[in-house]
Amino acid sequence: MTAHGHRLAEAEQVLTHYDFWSGNVLWDDGALTGVIDWPGASRAPRGFDVGWCRLDLVLLHGPRTVETFTNAYQNAAGRPILDLPLWDVFALTNSHHAVETWPPNYHDLGRTDLTAEDLRERHTAWTDQRLPLCP
Predict the structure, then answer these.
(1) Residue 2: its pLDDT value, please?
(2) How do residues 78-128 score in pLDDT, each as one tens digit?
(3) Domain membership of residue 126 as a residue range
(4) By its UniProt entry, which InterPro entries does this protein fall under (predicted)?
(5) Residues facing residue 26 across a β-bridge
(6) What's the domain count of the chain?
(7) How many Å apart are CA 70 and CA 135, to the nearest integer?
(8) Which end of the chain is more exposed for a tag (fewer CB within 10 A), N or C?
(9) Mean predicted confidence (pLDDT) in 46-68
(10) Over the chain, what is the mean pLDDT?
């Protein structure tokens, strides 16, 4: 991935939440009503938030939810996310050391069934799935 890091850094920049995940999205009766917790907002490539959100969805619900989110995001944005496998690996690489500490975040969302071991297992499986797709 390091050899292709310049592709991520040079991607078009947009307003980025910088902590976009399920815990920061508000819904009411199936309708999106808001996105909260914006103190880290900045300009960055859209793939930054998308990659992190995809990882979060895999950890919470499994890989099937990822494509639903990605398709909805790309439709709303009116363009594809370039280098998506690289953005996934970016999020995986930067979360590898700490994913076992995340259960309290998910417990606050009602996923008290998720353990540190579950998160590590899902993280590893997502890594194994995404790495072969990187150039």
Answers:
(1) 56
(2) 999 999 999 999 999 999 999 999 999 999 899 999 999 999 999 999 999
(3) 2-133
(4) Aminoglycoside_PTrfase, Kinase-like_dom_sf
(5) 34
(6) 1
(7) 20
(8) C
(9) 95
(10) 92
Rounded distance, CA 58 to CA 64, Å?
Answer: 8
Exposure class string for 40-66: b at 16+ Cβ within 10 A, else e: eeeebbbbbbbbbbbbbbbbbeeeeeb
Between CA 113 and CA 75 the distance in angstroms is 32
3-state SS string for the chain: CHHHHHHHHCCCEEEECCCCCHHHEEEECCEEEEECCCCCCEEEEHHHHHHHHHHHHHHHHCCHHHHHHHHHHHHHHCCCCCCHHHHHHHHHHHHCCCHHHCHHHHHCCCCCCCCHHHHHHHHHHHHHHHHHHCC
Whether residue 8 has pLDDT greater than 60 = yes
Residues 74, 81 contacting (CB under 8 angstroms): yes
Q: Which residue has the tokens 């690289």?
A: 86
3 falls in which pLDDT band (50, 70, 90)?
low
pTM, entire model:
0.91
Q: Which CATH number belongs to the domain containing residue 117 in this structure?
A: 3.90.1200.10
